[in-house]
Design goal:
Layout: H1 54-68, H2 71-90, H3 96-129
Length: 131
């Protein structure tokens, strides 16, 4: 038993079924003619996914705690915030806003710690002066 051959399908292939349809002649891609592929490194390997905002959150926590504990913890928060901010700007990590907050809060904390030390020494000196 032979089936009649379809003139539009000379090789007798079944039409594709399913949700994905390959673009045909004249069909436009969203990028204006080229399909979108994820960025790849040499050799066809994709790059690693971006890190989470862990470093930025750690920097923010250190910056906040450093206001109340000591200036060394605040400096650690500022350093971690700067590293996280640089990674976020390069696209290697997430949490650019949190990293920026860590840097700002850290510098405010350093300023408050320096002001507290100046005031403590000033009040101590004034107490000894007017004794």
């Amino acid at each position: 038993m032979t089936y009649p051959q379809d003139p539009n399908n000379p090789y007798g292939q079944q039409p594709q079924s399913g949700g994905y349809q390959q673009p045909g002649y004249g069909q436009q891609y969203p990028s204006g003619g080229f399909p979108q592929y994820p960025p790849q490194y040499p050799g066809g390997m994709q790059g690693p996914p971006p890190e989470g905002p862990g470093l930025a959150i750690g920097g923010l926590i250190c910056s906040i705690l450093g206001i109340f504990l000591c200036v060394l913890v605040t400096i650690a928060g500022v350093v971690m915030g700067h590293i996280a901010l640089a990674k976020a700007k390069r696209g290697e990590a997430e949490g650019q806003g949190v990293a920026l907050a860590a840097v700002i809060v850290g510098y405010v904390g350093i300023g408050l710690n320096v002001l507290a030390v100046i005031l403590l020494f000033g009040f101590g000196f004034a107490h000894e002066l007017f004794r």
